Amino acid sequence: MTAVQSRGVARIRAAFEKAKAEGRAAFIPFMTAGYPSAAAFPALADDLLARADLLEVGLPYSDPLGDGPTIQRASEQALADGTSTRRTIELVKELRTRHDKPIVIMTYVNPIYAVGPREFMELAQAAGVDGLILPDLPPDQDLEIADLAAEHGIAVTFLIAPTSTPERIKLVAEACTGFLYAVSVTGVTGAREGTALGEVPAMLELARQHTDVPIAVGFGVKDTQTAHQVANLADGVVVGSAFINAVREGQDVPALVKSLADGCVR
């Protein structure tokens, strides 16, 4: 692996290792690019990055099948405000001027194809994107995107869920180069009244048999308690809808960031 190829992987792995050395799971907040507006997004991202180990930036998309209503509405608002694929990458580039923590983009594959896979990777590399989370790309169906990402120093992350078969878990675990994203529940994203983790330990145990990349768990984490539950099982805790809800409702986002980051301490 060349120096260019190792960049995103190395930065992401270092973030997880730092969190582990400090006795906690990595804290991975999510925010839709351009939400609540293109002008307000950078300051909001700064608030998240103040305590984040990695930041996940959602690329707004008109048909986000894996996202619940909270993130869907945020995407619709961002798109209406003009946040395109290229603008999302520009926003990450702006953040990179102030932050050296890993930044990953969560995107469906259609926006990548719309720009062109190679041009997308070139733009992402130039902006300082460290990784891509690809929720609708089976790693055995399109090797071009993963190969181009590696060529441009960008790590790739795929998802597993409680419904994933052992064969699928093995396939996905072996394909991830940044970290593995384990969905805690079946269904779409969104903060829930409770986070059922009954099937998660077995899913993580199986995944760890096939990879040494860190494993982050998301979907349904909304407060200190649920973050702590996940932190005791996984290498990283992903929180998304809770922050979008907080922005929409005018809550104290930095206070929520602190609360959820504190929950990641084991």
From TrEMBL:
Its EC number is 4.2.1.20. Keywords: Amino-acid biosynthesis, Aromatic amino acid biosynthesis, Lyase, Tryptophan biosynthesis. This is Tryptophan synthase alpha chain. InterPro entries: Aldolase_TIM, RibuloseP-bd_barrel, Trp_synthase_alpha_AS, Trp_synthase_suA. It comes from the Bacteria. Tetramer of two alpha and two beta chains. The keyword Ligase does not apply. The alpha subunit is responsible for the aldol cleavage of indoleglycerol phosphate to indole and glyceraldehyde 3-phosphate. GO terms for molecular function: tryptophan synthase activity. GO terms for cellular component: cytosol. NCBIfam families: trpA. HAMAP family: Trp_synth_alpha. It catalyses: (1S,2R)-1-C-(indol-3-yl)glycerol 3-phosphate + L-serine = D-glyceraldehyde 3-phosphate + L-tryptophan + H2O. Pathway: Amino-acid biosynthesis; L-tryptophan biosynthesis; L-tryptophan from chorismate: step 5/5. PROSITE patterns: TRP_SYNTHASE_ALPHA. The active site is at E56 (proton acceptor), D67 (proton acceptor). Belongs to the TrpA family. The keyword Transferase does not apply.
